[in-house]
Amino acid sequence: MARGVRFHQHGGPEVLRIEEIAVAPPAPREVQIRVKALGLNRAEASLRRGSYIETATLPSGLGLEAAGIVAAIGEGVEEFAPGDAVSIVPPVSMVRWPAHAELATFPAELVVKHPPALDFETAAAVWMQYLTAFGALVDLARLGRGEFVVITAASSSVGLAAIQIANRIGAVPIAVTRTSAKAQALREAGAAHVIASAEQDLQSRLEQIAGPNGVRVVLDAVGGPAFVPLTAAMAPGGILIEYGGLSPEPTPFPLANVLGKSLTLRGYLVHEIVRDPARLTAAKAFILDGLADGTLRPIIARTFPFEEIVEAHRYLESNTQFGKIVVTV
């Protein structure tokens, strides 16, 4: 038995419970981990509310990111041993592989020996944000040195990871945030330019920054009405990668901009990288190299103890954080 986070009905953070759960030993090619820290993501809040791309079977566990110590290995696992410090690549199904527990089991292919210099809190904040940003900017968009890239929801963990990856490549990150409250922090985090979309005209500011050639790559987590000014400021042949859809407002299809500039609007899930062994190997190599040389540095907004998982989810939904929320176990 071990404690785990579950919910018996959909709803707000208050539906989460910490319960004693029977934990089976690892099956072949599985690794069981004594969890030390968890990373929180909006996907978990969506699953809890019943609005995620995956449907929970109630009662359900949840959680996509963890770091800890290998407790046991299943048959056929040779690359890990009990006592190894590891972190987890987000599984395709958090219902099947819930991470928010004291003891959690994952496919060996999703377990990573992270750099020894990383503590468990930092290691738990790595994989979702950097895999998402890498897959969008490097794997899909082929972002290059000197290119502008627009990053919305820039103070989120993925937004900050995208800023760091853009800088590592030598691209020029333009951070878009709702108000100027986080503008200085975004500049200190590496944004070359910051636009407060509720206070400034998004299209005209992008045109001032990028000039007549426009922006080829946009990484957007929001959707909604901003699709019109974003695509209006894009370069011919540009690509807008949508990975979030956070806006409660309808997202218009900017037909004139898409047709006139031959734009690509591309929906994207990190699962595309996780499911493809070759792409995942390339992504892990890039991220581990960046962690080792210091160009990639997870920014943790706040940590909560495991017993305050409800409060951690409330903070997640407050939209006030700058970076990753981590829960220690």
UniProtKB/TrEMBL annotation:
Pfam families: ADH_N, ADH_zinc_N
Keywords associated with the record: NADP, Oxidoreductase
Keyword Ribosomal protein: no
Entry keyword annotation includes NADP: yes
SUPFAM superfamilies the UniProt entry points to: GroES-like, NAD(P)-binding Rossmann-fold domains
Ranges of residues in domain Enoyl reductase (ER): 11-327
InterPro entries assigned: ADH-like_C (IPR013149), ADH-like_N (IPR013154), ER (IPR020843), GroES-like_sf (IPR011032), NAD(P)-bd_dom_sf (IPR036291)
Name of the featured protein: Zinc-dependent alcohol dehydrogenase family protein
Classification of source organism: Bacteria, Pseudomonadati, Pseudomonadota, Alphaproteobacteria, Hyphomicrobiales
